[in-house]
Amino acid sequence: MVSLLLVVIYLIFISLGLPDSLLGSGWPQMQKAFLVPSSYAGYVSMTISFMTIISALLSPKMIRRFHTKWITIVSIALTIVGLLGFSICGEYWMLFVFAIPYGLGAGAIDASVNHYVANNFSGSVMNFLHCFYGVGAVISPYIMALALKYARWNEGYRWTSYIQVLILLVCIISLPLWKTNGKAEEEDHSKSVGIREALKLPAVICTLVAFYAYCAGEATCFLWTPSYFAGTKEGLSAETIASFGSLIFGGLMFGRLISGFISNKLGDRKLIRIGIFIELIGIIMVFLSVENYIVAAIAFIIIGTGMGPVYPAIQHMAPSNFGKRYSAAVIGLQMAAAYIGSTFMPMVFGLIQQKIGIGIMPFYLVLFAVLNFSMLELAYYILKRGAEV
Questions:
Q1: What is the reported pLDDT for 369?
Q2: For residue 214, what pLDDT is reported?
Q3: How far apart are CA 73 and CA 367, in angstroms?
Q4: CA quadruple 96, 99, 104, 106: dihedral positive or negative?
Q5: What residue segments make up the domains of the chain, in order of their start?
Q6: CB atoms < 10 A from the CB of 368, how many?
Q7: Which DSSP category does 152 fall into?
Q8: Looking at the domain that runs over 2-388, which CATH code has it been given?
């Protein structure tokens, strides 16, 4: 029963990843269709992420009141509404209307399922979980590329929504599987605290800044990698550029797959340190790629591979660092901080690249990688000092 439940949870994270890379992959063509500047992708991304922040902040209350399975089903249904809505948009402003359910659904799934797995399964399972997020995020740029080749960008969103409907049906059929851990989950929730109490814990603020920095870099890659190739490499087709939206997601998936096998042996902290070091190597390769798009493509895969273990490892450490009583609130706060980075920093980058040029992207990524690393190291120091007192 537990193994079948894990299969369903992994499938849920495929559904979480599916919508995330569509905007970046489709934007070069969407921009032409809507007759808007390239930076306007950032405003749509910001709206989606802002709604995700709201649902992440509400997640501790939702987790206390509702079972994870119901939060998941409603959330997937919301993302289906958002995807179908995007597919019928004929004007730029319409994207903002459907960005609301698009973002609300993602945040609720992310926070509730991460909390459930962090409290009930090992670090290996957490990494495999986020690996399957990468599977979904890798698939959708190819769906968009096929749509651009045989139809229009709208169909990329519509076809992805059909996959989401199938995943939703599987989740509904699998509802009895959640009864295995349902009682224990309810007991954990009855003792959990709110966001205000969690904010008072030592080192929480540092982990929030680290999460913000990580997701600022990650989301910038999600949204702007195809545009980076369109703006710095000549002679590439629209389909090829759209498919490059999968590079960072492919790296993430690979990094998390490897981490799933070694995380229990190395531990979360070592995984994060190794990951950020690999990420920096990839960024240096982007600097050196100049006009060679193959080197740049490999570099973005390496960046994604390095980023891979960071997100799940920080989430998995929450119960051990702060205690199960605080874990739901801490993970909700971490999700909110993550999506603040996802909301604003791709938009900020869009404005910067419009004035300076898309070639500034690797400098931008270095800034957030260093901030992520330094804040996590400070958090470890504070936690160690607190344990010694």
A1: 94
A2: 94
A3: 37
A4: negative
A5: 2-388
A6: 22
A7: -
A8: 1.20.1250.20
